[in-house]
Amino acid sequence: MSATSRQYAELYRRFQAPISKVYDCGKKCAPLNNGTPFCCDAENAIPIVEKSEYALLQSRSDLWKPFKPRDKQQANEVADLKGSDCRAVECKGAAHCERDNRSLACRSFPYYPYFNAQKELIGLAHYWSFEGSCWIIHNLTIVELPFIQQFVASHEYLFKTDPAWRDTYIGQSSTHRGVYSKRKKKFPVIARNGDYFWVLPNSGGEMVPAKKSELYELRAGFPGPEYK
To answer: Would you tell me the crossing angle of helices 145-161 and 5-14 to the nearest 10 degrees?
Structure first.
């Protein structure tokens, strides 16, 4: 059963922490996308919400509207949602953002809840299709603990009300492992307590601790501040 609008309102209440209070990641990637943050540009990331979540957003603001495909690929993405409880939407843009009325996808981006091979919720992993465009993916050590904790807690709340989402992310996690195994590369995961791990390729999802000094190497090719 899908989460209700009322349950999404509770989820929003629980999940308000920014990724970082120090850095505005949108200002870091915007210069690479004609001045618009990648996550706020429907041309790059089409927001997908449950119909009950969209009903809540409509009741709170005029920020959101149905997404209108601009090309065949986008039309196919929207068509894939037909018959589901989800729909594609878009907002007025970063300049008009209302933080209290961001969707769950906006609050979470670029992360999704990562499950290990034993179907245990470990923490946060990134959407790999945004590598090379999302600044946070390459600077994950600035992600702060309040965001991590609220991210995990809010998704656990969602899974209790809508178990199908849990299965979706279990599948997403498995696909992530498969993609990186084919690449013969490890990928980082942020644990619920703020620790960092590498998920090793072709290992059945084995995780080993990651040092911050190793994670700094992910910054290669991206502008931004030096930090320790």
So the answer is: 160
How far apart are alpha carbons 218 and 220 in whole angstroms? 5
How many residues in the chain? 228
Q: How far apart are the first and last CA of the chain?
A: 44
Q: Check residue 1 and give its pLDDT.
A: 72
pLDDT given for residue 225 in this prediction: 52
Which residue in this structure is represented by tokens 């690479």?
Answer: 32
Query: The tokens of 106 are what?
Result: 């906006």
Cα 86 to Cα 80: distance, rounded to the nearest angstrom: 10
* Contacts of 228 by beta carbon, 8 Å cutoff, 6+ apart: 212
In whole angstroms, give the CA distance from residue 180 to residue 227.
27
Structure tokens at 183: 């690449």
**DSSP assignment string, 136-168:** GGG-GGG--HHHHHHHHHHHHHHHHH-HHHHHH
pLDDT < 70 regions, the chain: 221, 223-228
